Protein backbone atom coordinates (compact mmCIF):
# COMPACT_ATOMS: atom_id res chain seq x y z
CA UNK A 1 0.00 0.00 0.00
CA UNK A 2 2.82 2.39 0.80
CA UNK A 3 4.53 2.08 -2.62
CA UNK A 4 1.23 2.87 -4.31
CA UNK A 5 0.84 5.99 -2.17
CA UNK A 6 4.38 7.09 -2.99
CA UNK A 7 3.83 6.47 -6.69
CA UNK A 8 0.58 8.43 -6.64
CA UNK A 9 2.13 11.30 -4.71
CA UNK A 10 4.87 11.58 -7.33
CA UNK A 11 2.89 11.06 -10.52
CA UNK A 12 -0.20 13.17 -9.83
CA UNK A 13 1.75 16.42 -9.29
CA UNK A 14 3.92 15.61 -12.32
CA UNK A 15 0.84 15.18 -14.51
CA UNK A 16 -0.69 18.42 -13.18
CA UNK A 17 2.54 20.32 -13.84
CA UNK A 18 2.79 18.93 -17.39
CA UNK A 19 -0.83 19.87 -18.10
CA UNK A 20 -0.34 23.41 -16.78
CA UNK A 21 2.81 23.79 -18.87
CA UNK A 22 1.03 22.57 -21.98
CA UNK A 23 -1.95 24.86 -21.43
CA UNK A 24 0.28 27.89 -20.87
CA UNK A 25 2.40 27.08 -23.94
CA UNK A 26 -0.68 26.81 -26.15
CA UNK A 27 -2.46 29.88 -24.81
CA UNK A 28 0.44 32.34 -24.51
CA UNK A 29 0.88 35.04 -27.16
CA UNK A 30 3.70 34.42 -29.63
CA UNK A 31 6.01 37.35 -30.51
CA UNK A 32 6.42 38.23 -34.15
CA UNK A 33 9.81 37.53 -35.70
CA UNK A 34 11.57 40.44 -37.37
CA UNK A 35 15.15 41.14 -38.38
CA UNK A 36 15.10 44.58 -36.75
CA UNK A 37 13.91 43.23 -33.43
CA UNK A 38 16.54 40.50 -33.27
CA UNK A 39 19.42 42.76 -34.30
CA UNK A 40 21.77 44.13 -31.58
CA UNK A 41 21.45 47.87 -30.95
CA UNK A 42 23.93 50.28 -29.40
CA UNK A 43 23.43 53.96 -30.15
CA UNK A 44 22.39 53.29 -33.71
CA UNK A 45 25.58 51.43 -34.66
CA UNK A 46 25.64 47.89 -35.91
CA UNK A 47 27.77 45.53 -33.86
CA UNK A 48 28.08 41.94 -35.00
CA UNK A 49 27.48 39.45 -32.21
CA UNK A 50 30.75 38.46 -30.56
CA UNK A 51 31.29 34.92 -29.35
CA UNK A 52 33.11 34.88 -26.03
CA UNK A 53 36.45 33.13 -25.89
CA UNK A 54 36.32 30.01 -23.72
CA UNK A 55 39.67 28.79 -22.56
CA UNK A 56 40.54 25.23 -21.72
CA UNK A 57 41.04 26.25 -18.08
CA UNK A 58 37.27 26.38 -17.60
CA UNK A 59 36.88 22.79 -18.75
CA UNK A 60 39.90 21.70 -16.71
CA UNK A 61 38.35 23.25 -13.60
CA UNK A 62 35.03 21.48 -14.27
CA UNK A 63 36.73 18.09 -14.73
CA UNK A 64 38.78 18.51 -11.56
CA UNK A 65 35.67 19.49 -9.62
CA UNK A 66 33.74 16.45 -10.83
CA UNK A 67 36.58 14.06 -10.04
CA UNK A 68 36.99 15.52 -6.54
CA UNK A 69 33.26 15.29 -6.04
CA UNK A 70 33.11 11.62 -7.06
CA UNK A 71 36.09 10.72 -4.89
CA UNK A 72 34.61 12.54 -1.90
CA UNK A 73 31.32 10.71 -2.45
CA UNK A 74 33.13 7.35 -2.44
CA UNK A 75 34.99 8.29 0.74
CA UNK A 76 31.81 9.45 2.46
CA UNK A 77 29.97 6.26 1.55
CA UNK A 78 32.80 3.95 2.52
CA UNK A 79 32.75 4.82 6.23
CA UNK A 80 29.40 3.17 6.93
CA UNK A 81 29.18 0.29 4.48
CA UNK A 82 31.43 -2.77 4.51
CA UNK A 83 31.03 -3.42 0.77
CA UNK A 84 32.52 -0.06 -0.17
CA UNK A 85 35.34 -0.16 2.40
CA UNK A 86 37.85 -1.66 -0.07
CA UNK A 87 37.35 1.43 -2.21
CA UNK A 88 38.61 3.74 0.53
CA UNK A 89 42.37 3.23 -0.12
CA UNK A 90 41.70 3.47 -3.85
CA UNK A 91 39.85 6.76 -3.34
CA UNK A 92 42.72 8.15 -1.25
CA UNK A 93 45.19 7.08 -3.93
CA UNK A 94 43.10 8.73 -6.64
CA UNK A 95 42.87 11.88 -4.54
CA UNK A 96 46.66 11.97 -4.09
CA UNK A 97 47.27 11.40 -7.81
CA UNK A 98 44.80 14.12 -8.72
CA UNK A 99 46.42 16.54 -6.28
CA UNK A 100 49.82 15.75 -7.82
CA UNK A 101 48.49 16.34 -11.35
CA UNK A 102 46.98 19.67 -10.28
CA UNK A 103 50.24 20.73 -8.61
CA UNK A 104 52.22 19.90 -11.76
CA UNK A 105 49.65 21.50 -14.05
CA UNK A 106 49.49 24.85 -12.23
CA UNK A 107 53.14 25.13 -11.36
Summarize the structure.
With 107 residues, this protein is mainly α. It has helices at residues 2-27, 35-38, 56-78, 87-105.
Please provide a written account of the structure.
With 107 residues, this protein is an all-alpha fold. It has one domain (2-105). It is 67% helix and 0% strand. It has helices at 2-27, 35-38, 56-78, 87-105. Helix 3 runs antiparallel to helix 4 (87-105). The N and C termini lie far apart (60 Å).
List the topology elements.
Elements: H1 2-27, H2 35-38, H3 56-78, H4 87-105
Short key terms for the protein model shown above:
mainly alpha, 107 residues, flat, 67% helix
Report the span from N to C terminus.
Answer: 60 Å
* Number of E-state strands: 0
Low-pLDDT sequence parts:
none
Computed over alpha carbons, the radius of gyration is: 26 Å
Number of helices: 4
Q: Tell me the fraction of residues in β-strands, as a range.
A: under 5%
Query: What is the helix content?
Result: 55-70%
Q: Determine the structural class based on helices, strands and strand pairing.
A: mainly alpha
Let me know the average pLDDT. Answer: 77
* Major sheet summary line: none
Number of domains: 1
Order of helices and strands: HHHH
Shape: flat
Amino acid sequence: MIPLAILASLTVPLIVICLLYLISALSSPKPRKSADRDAPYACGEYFPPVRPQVTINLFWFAIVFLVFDIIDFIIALSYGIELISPLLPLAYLALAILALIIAIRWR
